[in-house]
Amino acid sequence: MELQVWIWLMIGLTFSLYIGIAIWSKAGSTNEFYVAGTGVSPIANGMATAADWMSAASFISMAGLISFMGYDGSVYLMGWTGGYVLLALLLAPYLRKFGKFTVPDFIGDRYYSDTARLVAVFCALIISFTYVAGQMRGVGLVFSRYLEVDINTGVVIGMAIVLFYAVLGGMKGITYTQVAQYCVLIFAFMVPAIFISIQMTGNPIPQIGFGSEGADGVYLLEKLDGLSKELGFHEYTTGSKSKLDVFFITAALMIGTAGLPHVIVRFFTVKKVSDARKSAGWALLFIAILYTTAPAIAVFARTNLIETVSEKKYDEMPLWFDNWEKTGLLKFDDKNNDGVIQYVADPQINELTIDRDIMVMANPEIAELPNWVIALLAAGALAAALSTAAGLLLVISSSVSHDLIKKIIKPDVSEKGELIAARISAFFAVIMAGYFGINPPGFVAAVVALAFGLAAASFFPAIVMGIFYKRMNKEGAISGMLTGLLLMLFYMTKFKFGWFGGGDESDWWFGISPEGFGTLAMLVNFVVSLTVCHITKEPSEEIQELVEKIRIPE
Amino acid sequence: MSKNLAEKYWKKNLKYLLILLSIWFIVSFGFGILLIDELNQIKIAGFKLGFWFAQQGSIYVFVTLIFIYIYLMNRLDKKYHSKK
User: Residue B10 and residue A285: Cβ atoms within 8 Å?
Assistant: First the structure.
């Protein structure tokens, strides 16, 4: 069958599945809309969390990123998985016991203050909007690359689908579509990985395969280290970043993960405290399948690529090379006019520019896999982008309808009124996300790192101290969150956008990059909170009792 | 649950957290970052050990840690539930 037919078939099938689930799981109450009626089983919630978490970036870009960064790419692997240990041990069970709908709910109640609630809503909205814009863009890209429609048309199709199941089904609809989306995306990611692992090493398990010997009897990683050095790149298995920076970036990503509202809120949807712990375990297990495969794909793809192109004649390149050259993701510029591809680290001599996304997207073609695998990959990428977008949109809509309207502006709103407000805000959130997807602000790539930094610098300390430190009061928490947030914004805008005088690498504080700065801002948050807390009044008896109650399961 | 019992339960929980989070720190920040040069001297099949911890091993340990925590806390919950 033609590739185009296969792709339409796969996308048509998966999309009708998502819509079918949305109709079946229509939300009838605010409880169902915000937290799926707290009736989700731990395994289903684990899958939904995994799909919620793994975005277009995890699916399409991460393996490619690692293949160019080598060891330095470990910051993403450890950072985006290690956060779940913090979630499972420090946050999820207690927030579930607290048992409301949103993160600002917890901050507002625990710190007995609408100011704290507002600060939290503000953080949640900034984090979610920066993140969702990238997702809608991802949807558009996948559509345009595989279906040869305009990127903007792709964004609109994606919006229509998300609109349908998020507005109709709320958290309940999103949860069960995410379960389906996880199955689609993990299958789509693993099939090509397993095929390629067998081709290159004879071992069907990619995690073991990339530590094995290739057909020539040389260990794959050794060969790649050698090839990298030969071409002037740094050795693949050792890094080029400073240890301190790797440490800080990893910590910022871990803590940021644990502080992202769309991830935290998933743990409100299960029945009881022990289920919250269990779903964190399942979630990480499901995530780990993809995250331990990605570094293997990175090695396979990088070795394959170098061996295919380096010092080879341009005219003899295989068909996939031409195909991806047409998309502009692969560019060849024959600087010395010898008709041979020089692919080296030195930008003066290098003749080939490679977009990192190609590493996953072109994989099935490079390995000469059948058309249905390519179509599957397209459906998987869409599942990854849509599931994350939907989770974020729900956070945005519940922040507006629940935290702002119900809790602050109009507390006497009826259940029905709040549900209508939730649907209307979900609708506008989709429209806004779509707008950003069509007119992406130039800073999207930069702000995704910002989202993690912000979550680490604002939410994480406030929540953790809210649970583990009874004495923490509203003055401490609010001043800590604001300091962390502003400091992070300052550092990021200074070094990413050149505000406040700008600066380059040599001006970084203690040599910490903006990506890793969230860790430092978080430490400052802790220090400020604790200092302020000790010179102001301790919280009331009731609040201290509330904390004690949160600590013990029912 | 009485106040006394609740306090004991919490202390035990904190002890588990301390132990598990120390392991969490050692495998990722310790083996995968700070001690990587030393561990990379050791090779298992095609993997340098430090590199393996950074890109594979730490993740397997993370998953295991959460499941150990689930087991420990379920046991603790049961014990305190019957004492109530």
Answer: no
- Structure confidence by residue, pLDDT tens digits, A87-107: 999 999 999 998 888 889 999
Please give the torsion angle defined by the CA atoms of residues A367, A373, A379 and A385, in that order, rounded to the nearest 10 degrees: -30
Residue A427 distance to chain B (closest CA, Å):
37
- Domain A30-313+362-551 CATH superfamily: Sodium/glucose cotransporter (1.20.1730.10)
Distance from CA of A430 to the nearest CA of B (A): 34
Q: Which amino acid would we find at residue A524? A: V
Per CB-CB distance under 8 Å, the chain A contacts of B52 are 211
Closest CA to A459 of A217, A203, A124: A124
Helix (H, G, I), strand (E, B) or coil at B56: helix
**How many alpha carbons fall within 13 Å on the CB side of residue A10?**
28
Say how far apart CA A246 and CA A150 lie, in whole Å: 39
Other CB atoms within 10 A of residue A29 CB: 14
Residues of chain A with CATH 1.20.1730.10: 30-313+362-551
Burial of A19 (0-12, 13-18, 19+ CB in 10 A): middle
Kindly state the greatest CA–CA separation across chain B: 56
How far A341 CA lies from chain B's nearest CA (Å)?
Answer: 29
The ipTM is: 0.95
pLDDT tens digits along A287-303: 999 999 999 999 998 99
| Half-sphere CA count of A403, side-chain side, radius 13 A | 30
Look at B45 and A219 and tell me if their CB atoms are within 8 Å: yes
- How confident is the model over A410-449, as pLDDT tens digits? 888 888 888 888 889 888 888 888 887 787 665 555 566 6
DSSP 8-state symbol, B31: I
What is the residue-wise DSSP string for A111-153? Answer: TT-HHHHHHHHHHHHHHHHHHHHHHHHHHHHHHHHHH---HHH
The verdict on a CB contact (< 8 Å) between B66 and A281 is yes
Look at the alpha carbons of A462, A465, A466, A471 in this order and tell me if their dihedral is positive or negative: negative
Do the chains contact at A553 and B56, CB–CB below 8 Å?
A: no
- Point out which residues pair with A332 in neighbouring strands: A352
Tell me, yes or no, if the pTM score tops 0.80. Answer: yes
